[in-house]
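User: Run a structure prediction on this.
Assistant: Running it now.
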Amino acid sequence: MRVIVGYLASWMLLLCVSAHASEGYDSEKVKTGILPSGGFYSLYEVDCNDDFTATIASMNRNRQWCLSESGELSCYSRRQDASSRACMSGRVAVIEDNRKAVGKY
């Protein structure tokens, strides 16, 4: 009986984790262009939670998904990873801006 309960608990945990990981961000292509190297890129606006919008870029025929973090280019192999990171980075920037604005008064 303990083995069955253990398997059932493991299965439920995997189900919850996969459901959370599959939560996606809506994105819309807003621009396409050509890089100086001759490759194509596309810019996407990502709708994050709390009415925040972030921007990511697709390069190498959607094999790389990139964003700018503190002046550095960070690239991921999955759109979901880049979208998630862009939304997190944007929220941190908004919080920092709000703290600076509150500190001025």
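The longest strand covers residues 26-34.
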